[in-house]
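Revision sheet: structure tokens.
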Amino acid sequence: MGVVKGLMAVVGIAAIMMGALWILQGLDIVRWPSSSFMLGDLTWTRNGTVLALIGVALVWFARKR
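Predicted:
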């Protein structure tokens, strides 16, 4: 079970980081890459929030006993 929990934690952290990037790009705070179709699109803010919440849930389940 330790391997599964470790994998869940790693995937969860990656999801949180990617979700945060999507949120910041959707809010037009991070303009990288400059030609991205995600910049200033609130759809990506919503998608990033959902992805980050899934990542938080994965980390939470990984830390549960």
